[in-house]
Amino acid sequence: MNEPPRIAVLIPVHGALPCLEECLRSLTEVRDRTPYRLVLIDDGTPGGLGDLPARFPVDVLLTRPSQGGFTAAVNEGLSAVFPEHEACVLLNSDMQVRPGWLDALVARWRCESRVGLVGGMELDPDDPDRIVCGGSRPLFARGELTSLLRLDRTGSLRAGDLQTPEPLEWVSFGIALVARDAWEEVGELDPRFRNYFSDTDYGCRANLAGFAVWYEPASRVLHRRHQSTRLMEGPGLMRLQADRESYCRKWFPGGLPIGRDERRWAVRGMKSRRAWRPRLIPHLGRLTPLNGLVRPRLLADAAVRRDVETVLAADGRLDLGHDELEAYRRLYTRGLAFVDFLDVQPPAASSPPAFGLPVEVFAPHADDAALSVGGLLLARRQAGARTRVHVLFGRSRHSTGLLEGLDVAGASFVRAFEEAAWCARAGAAFSIEPLPDRLVRQPAAPIFLRGPEEVEEELVGPVVAAMESRLAGCGSELPLLLAPLAAGLMADHAVVARAVTVLLARGYPPDRVLVYDDLPYATQPRAVRSGLELYARQGLTLRPRPVDVTPWFDEKTELLGLYASQMDDSFLCAVEQAGQAPFSSQDTRGSRSERLWTVEAGHD
Fold first, then answer.
1. What local confidence, expressed as pLDDT, does residue 296 receive?
2. Is residue 221 within a helix (H) or strand (E), and if so which, with residue range?
3. Distance (Å, rounded) from C-alpha 299 to C-alpha 118?
4. 0.70 exceeded by pTM
5. What pLDDT was estimated at residue 483?
6. CA distance 371 to 393
7. Which of 189, 194, 266, 271 has the fewest CB within 10 Å, making it most exposed?
């Protein structure tokens, strides 16, 4: 009987099934000399993988009941593969292998003793000459953190770049051989990194344990990047930044002497109750859709302008084209752009509006008002103005992990306690409605809708009734109503936004309604546009109105620490980024704002 293969190939999967089919087809068509056992681990793909495992030579299919992220899936897969196999090759589901890919990894692994990890070369499927990852740079070098955009070494095959095998600090786990003896000695991937930087961390740990980490350029794959994690959509970039922050806290707990180049991304260690407070500084001001094209509009910084124009002139392939997301990706991968607000011409910052009116804030969840209009509410507290915060979806099981193991009642109690603590500090009264949020109503359903037509209309009535009941207790003077934009069409936010349009249709004055940006979702231009579309479908136009909250901004960020079960540093990142966005001129660079939207009936 033939000896079973000593090598396994493990592919973690979550959605992106067309990419997975391309990957499996390439494995079928490319037959290296090295025999292997093909293992898929499905990380909670909605609806499963269909007939793909049966149509291709998959030896083992492992399934996880719900999505736990890349790190958890890899840990479970490697635990199943070892100790039966001597090595396991991790392969992303959005890759297509090329001849010799596996033989080269195995040959490098066997070239000497105690080789723990071997990574390969990733090429752009749209331009196979372009190397998108040829090994990785250290996260910390020359006294500074390496930019997120520079961690992967890039180059060109025609130019002869990155053709030499070499030991590195770490290699990407998009394609990487993991030796069994390294796994047994180093241990599993650190679960505190959900999707990113677990490979960075593991490479450092392997090096410290005396295992070599190699880059092997003869092992090549085509990589259609970020198809499962959707890095360029929604809050993916914030999760990436949060995992980097976790890495820094683990490896540099005393803080880092980080360079402060105002024209690059920077992470600053600040002395506060949160040891790490990220600050992301956009390299490019924003992207402007204009006549079907995407045009860059630069910050009013001559040095930045020269930098960007130099790169654009040197890279003739950087054609922004007609597709906004693709143009944004190209700018992002070259370090020319980061997430920014929807392109609108912001008016000059103003004082907080309508101090004399009582304000009723209708927030879908605990923490929404603190994130999005915390500075404004703190300003109202200083002015002695009356504010009430109403949390509409008070039944929830969501948390960033600290409430793990609690049922809905237990998690909801903790969230209510945190909301009460924040409102007490902000000088606001509050109430909580017992409506169940999306994760209670439909635990397996996505929390983001694909379009305004997917709003759960059966929930709009109860939300309207709750809002009218609270407004009825305000007396004869109509209060100023604050409600969410529903950026990104987060399901619960979209229901509240739809309820606001119903109130307006029933005669509530538009000049007594202000819409606020839902953070962290509203840091994405596409997400903001989807919220504007929801209102536009009801015949309503929203106009931006940034409010200067500079005197209260630091207190706002500090008070966010009261939501210990809900927030991590990625939320602070979004708040800091949003606070800077409407101010781009030199004389307002130190200002911080919150963006509100006024409501007008009728379309432009």
1. 35
2. strand 212-223
3. 41
4. no
5. 96
6. 16
7. 271
321-353: string of b/e by CB count within 10 Å (b at 16+)? eeebeebbbbbbbbbbbbbbbbbbeeeebeebe
pLDDT reported for residue 550: 86
Q: Could you give the CA distance from residue 511 to residue 543 in angstroms, rounded to a whole number?
A: 12
Contacts of 141 (CB under 8 A, 6+ apart): none
Q: Can you say whether the dihedral through the CA atoms of 144, 147, 153, 159 is positive or negative?
A: negative
What is the distance between the alpha carbons of residues 319 and 291, in angstroms, rounded to a whole number? 16
Q: What are the strands of the beta sheet with 429-432, ordered from one edge?
A: 429-432, 387-391, 359-363, 480-484, 513-516, 593-601, 540-548
- The low-confidence residues of the chain, meaning pLDDT below 70, are 1-5, 140-145, 147-149, 225-239, 241-242, 245, 249, 252-356, 399-405, 525, 568-570, 573, 577, 580-590, 602-604
Question: Exposed, middle or buried by CB within 10 Å (0-12, 13-18, 19+), for 405?
Answer: exposed
**Which residue bears the tokens 């969410």?**
484
Q: d(Cα 104, Cα 109) in Å, to the nearest integer?
A: 9
Closest CA to 308 of 280, 330, 339, 278: 330
Query: What's the pLDDT at 319?
Result: 52
The pLDDT value recorded for residue 368 is 93
Residue 461, judged by CB atoms within 10 A of its CB (0-12, 13-18, 19+), counts as exposed
Query: How high is the pLDDT of residue 147?
Result: 66
Could you count the other beta carbons within 10 Å of the beta carbon of residue 4? 11
Query: What is the model's pLDDT at position 388?
Result: 93
368: which residues sit within 8 A by CB, 6+ positions away? 391, 484, 493, 518
